[in-house]
């Protein structure tokens, strides 16, 4: 049997799809509680890790740079994001979270209980194995 026809593989794929759908549903709900759209929350989450140019944000979110510009404009008008020159290339503008943006991103992250609660029921070894398996599925080198 090919992996596609294997009933276990089909079941795992369906379970992953269910987890992803529930995660996005919870993420959209959490974003709305912070008066953000899901897209705004995702941009703020990305920027909480490091400032980045619009094109890189667009590539990460798999959308058009013009969409990101509008999202960053709205976040900037709320004082959550600012544009600043890239120290490596002053022609490039980086979007970066403000202190309020970092705090909002942290509150948003803290409010996402959907994944945290079920994962808390797994042992440390089970969570480590799940992390490794997901990294392998994504073509990443497990840490």
Automatic annotation (TrEMBL):
Cited Pfam families: MarR
InterPro entries linked to this entry: HTH_MarR-typ (IPR000835), MarR/SlyA-like (IPR039422), Tscrpt_reg_MarR-type_CS (IPR023187), WH-like_DNA-bd_sf (IPR036388), WH_DNA-bd_sf (IPR036390)
Domain HTH marR-type: 9-139
Keywords: DNA-binding, Transcription, Transcription regulation
Superkingdom, taxonomy of origin: Bacteria
GO-annotated molecular function: DNA binding; DNA-binding transcription factor activity
Biological process terms in GO annotation: response to stress
Name this protein carries in UniProt: MarR family transcriptional regulator
Source species taxonomy: Bacteria, Bacillati, Actinomycetota, Actinomycetes, Kitasatosporales
């Amino acid at each position: 049997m090919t992996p596609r026809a294997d009933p276990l593989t089909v079941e795992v794929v369906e379970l992953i799809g269910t987890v992803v759908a529930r995660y996005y549903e919870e993420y959209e709900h959490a974003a709305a509680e912070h008066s953000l759209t899901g897209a705004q929350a995702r941009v703020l989450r990305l920027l909480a890790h490091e400032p980045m140019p619009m094109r890189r944000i667009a590539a990460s979110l798999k959308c058009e740079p013009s969409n990101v510009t509008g999202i960053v404009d709205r976040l900037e008008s709320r004082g959550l994001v600012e544009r600043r020159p890239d120290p490596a290339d002053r022609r490039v503008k980086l979007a970066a979270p403000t202190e309020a943006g970092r705090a909002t991103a942290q509150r948003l992250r803290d409010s996402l209980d959907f994944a945290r609660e079920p994962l808390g029921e797994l042992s440390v070894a089970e969570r480590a194995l799940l992390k490794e398996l997901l990294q392998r599925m994504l073509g990443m080198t497990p840490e």
